[in-house]
Amino acid sequence: MSAAVAAARAGCRTLMIERYGFMGGMGTAAGVTNFCGLHANVFGSHQRVVAGVGGELVDRIGALGGLATPHILFGGKIAAQAYDTAAYKLAADTLVVDSGAQILFHAYAVGVQMDDEARIRALFVETKSGRHAVLGRIFIDASGDGDLAAAAGAPFEKGDGDGGMLYPSTMFRVNGVDAARAGDAWNHFGAWMEKAEAEGHRFARKTPIIRPQKNPAEWRANVTQLSNADGSAIDGTDAWQLSAGELQGRRQIADFYQFLRAYAPGFEQSYLLEIAPQVGIRETRRVVGEYQLTEDDVLGCVDFADTIGVNGWPIEAHVAGNVVFKFADVPNVRGYNQLPLRMILPQRVDNLLVAGRCASMTHMGQSAARVTGACFVMGEAAGTAAAQALRHGQRVRDVDVALLQATLQANGAFLGLPGDEGQPIG
To answer: Alpha-carbon distance 206 to 203, whole Å?
Structure first.
């Protein structure tokens, strides 16, 4: 979304191709319903560090009444912000359409035609009206899985070097919660789960993330973990594993919902409101670019001369049976790392950019910068860089970094450059 909007506003003829009939990706189709990475802990002050197109989308959701007040997590270390999926879909529609970009819904990318090994000529998409070839001068892969980049021959990695990826989850929401009786239930689920386990219940993972939405009677639950028979994470690029994961996720939800009603005060009369339309994928292909963002970059709050924005989210590793968080030394540090342009520039292919969780990061670096805030940042930079490359007749990897940064700042993006710190950003 942010890539399409940025490119269209810069005067490019832009087509955004979407597999569903609505936008939002994991944020809508996978039922995330919670923005991570919009905020950073900046020397103890929780500040919104994503502005520009992503910030505009968030503000439009708020104008529709679909945005909750940010909530503080992990003893004050970080903030997140819940939203309503319906408002997100409406806000996304108007944002992209108003930019002048065209949208092709219900289209699935199935291959490419190359001019040569370094240049994509066309993307093939399958639709209800048949297969089509979409010709373009520059392509941006925001598929999450790096589908276009992989088809074009860009190098990529999967997992931790041994094939182990971050585990997926199937998200769900319940309604009818007695908010007064539930209170701060999110602080007690661990103890309740221990009690239930002693009485014979089994859970796919520890560290449940269960929080209320804007409507206090509605709660979202991030508690499932999807694995193969050998215990490895479901691979979201394998159709058979993905199919098994969909079934497994719903079985786990059915079990956990019974636990909620039996053990969590205030949830006795709750009911299942929604199971997300698809499994929530955290990691599959990570395209290898000119730089890979690392765990040390995140924990060290590192700067880059070619910054395109920032990431304020910590390391969030979904490992077998648990979730492991690692934070920078907040509140004693700035609390965010810059994101370099080089991480959205794939090797080998000259007219391609990548944005989102398939961008160039190590396994652990990706566990932080895969979240929504950083995805918005990468997308806007990719769309802006594409427009700049076309305007100056350059390859995307040759764009003038200073000009790109000036354009992003003029359009309201926050880059974390000297002089930016401490400014009110939301």
So the answer is: 7
Pairing of strands 78-82, 102-104: unpaired
Single-letter residue type at 275: I
Are 40 and 312 in contact, with CB atoms under 8 Å apart? yes
CA 215 to chain CA centroid, Å, is: 23
Task: Report the C-alpha gap between 191 and 416 in whole angstroms.
Answer: 40
Tokens 């560090």 correspond to: 49
Length of the chain: 426
pTM, to two decimals: 0.96
Convert the pLDDT of each residue in 373-393 to its tens digit: 999 999 999 999 999 999 999
The Cβ of residue 196 has, within 10 Å, a number of other Cβ atoms equal to 19
Q: Beta strand pairing status for 352-354 and 139-141?
A: parallel
Is the pLDDT at 371 greater than 50? The verdict is yes
pLDDT in tens, 229-245: 999 999 999 999 999 99
Return the pLDDT at 419. Answer: 73
Structure confidence by residue, pLDDT tens digits, 117-138: 999 999 999 999 999 999 999 9
Between CA 388 and CA 103 the distance in angstroms is 22
251-295 pLDDT per residue, tens: 999 999 999 999 999 999 999 999 999 999 999 999 999 999 999
The phi, psi pair for 329, rounded to 5°, reads -75, 55
Mention every residue, 6+ apart, whose C-beta is less than 8 A from residue 108.
Answer: 19, 125, 126, 127
Could you write out the DSSP letters of every residue in 73-141?
EGGGTEEEEEB-HHHHHHHHHHHHHHHT-EEE-S-EEEEEEEEETTEEEEEEEEETTEEEEEE-SSEEE
* 333 Cβ contact partners less than 8 Å away, ≥ 6 residues apart: 43, 301
Distances (CA, A) of 391 to 88, 90, 193, 347, 419: 32, 32, 57, 22, 29
- State the DSSP H helix or E strand holding residue 5, giving kind and residue range, or none if neither: helix 2-9
Q: Phi and psi at residue 78, in whole multiples of 5°?
A: -155, 160
Question: Quick one: what percent of the chain has pLDDT higher than 70?
Answer: 98
For the chain, the distance separating the N- and C-terminal CA atoms, rounded to the nearest angstrom, is 21
Architecture in CATH for domain 2-162+284-410: 3-Layer(bba) Sandwich (3.50)
| Token representation of residue 355 | 């944005």
Query: Residue 289's closest CA among 222, 339, 231, 364?
Result: 339
Q: Give the residue from 153, 398, 380 showing the smallest Cα distance to 290.
A: 398
